[in-house]
Amino acid sequence: MQQRRGRTGRVRWRRRSSDSRGVNESHRPEFIELRRWLKGRKFEDTGLVPACFPGTGRGLMSKTALQEGQMIISLPESCLLTTNTVIRSSLGPYMKKWKPPPSPLLALCTFLISERHAGGQSLWKSYLDILPKSYTCPVCLEPDVVDLLPQPLKAKAEEQRADVQDFFASSRAFFSTLQPLFVEPVDGIFSYSAFLWAWCTVNTRAVYLRSTRQECLSAEPDTCALAPYLDLLNHSPHVQVKAAFSEKTGCYEIRTASRCRKHEQVFICYGPYDNQRLLLEYGFVSVCNPHACVPVNIEPLREMLPTLMGGEQAHKKMSILKDRGFTENLTFGWDGPSWRLFTALKLLCLEAEKFMSWKKVLLGEVISDTNEKTSLGMAQRICSDFIEETQAVLRKVSDLKEGKTLPTHQLSLVEALRMEELRILQASAVIVSSSRARCP
Q1: Which among 103, 251, 420, 438 is least surrounded, fewest beta carbons within 10 Å?
Q2: Distances 302 to 305, 306, 311, 378, 390 between C-alpha atoms, Å
């Protein structure tokens, strides 16, 4: 028998429910038109409606309670935008003639730019109208905002920007061949800003769908498909779903592996990604992400260990770590320094007379109480330095938001990432301090 809530319990429950419930947006013209367009392509209603939620923005809300294993969406193949869609369009003949063959990604980006330019004449207008007008992937951020990102993410963001710029530059010759399809000059249609929008659309919203290779496209994996309506589902690291294309039904199907209450937001999980990867690939940060961590670069540790890594042993220790793959995936997490980070520190802090025991260190063995305590002390120092750096960046972000010299929404994104990492570092600091206090 279900336990009845008292008055205070009911008030708290209503408050929590109102905080998590979204505002139904199915009445908005663009969503009415989208549903009409989807229905014309044999999509059947599965009880989800578009809504705006606090914290995540636009998403999908369940009209009824969902049970574990229940189908939440089944999107017919006719609704999916794939490279096959592109080849069947007016772009197809130009794709087939171009050498070397364009990549599947270029095909999708070209189609999106072309269809958006077509406006009301596009058969995909109903879908294009609900796509974001801009994105917050690092490639779209102001350079001064990118400078505020943690160093590992900043390096990847700069690499991402360079890759996209090179991709655009290498595609311009192909775009020029499309001039017969347009009245306006193609340089204005296929501009860098249009290309960036299309690239971000595919990169952040596509689902995995392995397609039969198109002979007129390059040999790169053709695994991306845009899925109208389905791509309104937001990410949560706390849910599990089963998503795949069913050959039997001819639909891309998603089933939930967890329950969802009526009028709550329905989530999917993009994968067990930390926040730096989520920001790099999708342009957002997940608060209270259990997979979140703070990466540690091994190289700067040399400067922090001058007294412990003197002479020839310092070089040998770094060589061992590199050879054994212990210079990557070193992190602080909610439960303290990762095993890989602490093991690397134990090797770097290994006493000279015990250096020959380095293999035992990499196997996780305790070499000495002194080594354990020294390694914990170093972890605490690194964590403290990271906390100080993160707090300094947060103060700078706050000042920049007041000065209004950079886009506030971009600064807020950096702030969210840095705040989450600060909480992780503070949790790690407590754990390391407690462990150190227990050392003999």
Answers
A1: 438
A2: 5, 7, 12, 12, 21
Q: Quick check: 61 and 22 in contact, CB under 8 A? A: yes
Q: For the chain, what is the mean pLDDT? A: 90
Q: Where is 380: in which H helix or E strand?
A: helix 369-403
**β-bridge pairing 48-53 and 57-62:** antiparallel
What is residue 309's predicted lDDT score, i.e. its pLDDT?
54
Structure confidence by residue, pLDDT tens digits, 78-97: 999 999 999 999 999 999 99
pLDDT band, residue 201 (cuts 50/70/90): very high
Give yes or no for a contact between 368 and 354, defined as CB atoms under 8 angstroms apart: yes
pLDDT at 55: 82
Closest alpha carbon to 66 in 275, 266, 233, 230: 266
Residue-level pLDDT at 302: 66
Distance between CA atoms of residues 372 and 382, nearest Å: 15
Torsion region of 206: left, alpha or beta (phi above 0 gives left; psi -120 to 50 gives alpha): beta
Task: Tell me the two tokens of residue 163.
Answer: 């890759």
In angstroms, the CA 285 to CA 297 distance is 21
Residue 26: name the closest of 45, 4, 6 by CA.
45
Phi-psi category of 168—alpha, beta or left, where left has phi over 0 and alpha has psi -120 to 50?
alpha
**Beta bridge pairs of residue 255:** 71, 242
Which pTM was predicted?
0.90
Residue (of 77, 78, 100, 73) closest to 174 by Cα position: 100
